[in-house]
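Hello Y.,

Per our agreement to keep a running log of every chain we model this quarter, I'm adding this entry. I've kept the format consistent with earlier entries: sequence first, then predicted structure.
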Amino acid sequence: VADRNARTLGRREQALAAQTAAFDELAATASLFEAGDQEALRRLTETVARALAARRVSLWQVDDRHDGITCLDCYDQESNGHTTGTDIRRAECPELLEALVRGEEIAVADAAQDARTAGVARGYLRAVGSRALLSVPIRGGAGVVGCIWIEDTGAAGRRGVEAQSFTRTIAHLIGSRFAPASEPEMARPAV
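Predicted structure for the entry above:
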């Protein structure tokens, strides 16, 4: 029992050290809060992926009518690559969009088994080989303006709660980057 407790404590210390390093790195990135800086988004998704040992991390923006979300940046740690521009529409995933607009956090080990995420599991996650999803809303002046998705962290139990708390803090930090949904400067950063 003592060995197991020591291993658990060691893993928690490593996770905390990785998250602290991520906060330090992001705090030194002033451009993180500039709406047009795509490179800052790339650094953010890479930093969060490393801190959480996540397979993929993405930032999504809610459109002004709350009819869909658009990926501003998705980092895949396995391929060390970024993608942008994917759209998910309300017609494809109504439960997901409703939950997002209500500001719900979603943490599921198998997205295909949850009514809110089953549509996105079929149409998006499965295609890229992901199964688990943590979705944390990003709030701005007009309510929910986006979300952060963490895919396949392997974090369960207490580590999952810690990953969720870390992601929630990141969402709070970058909420100011997003203009209120009704303002024209909410346009996506150039890619």
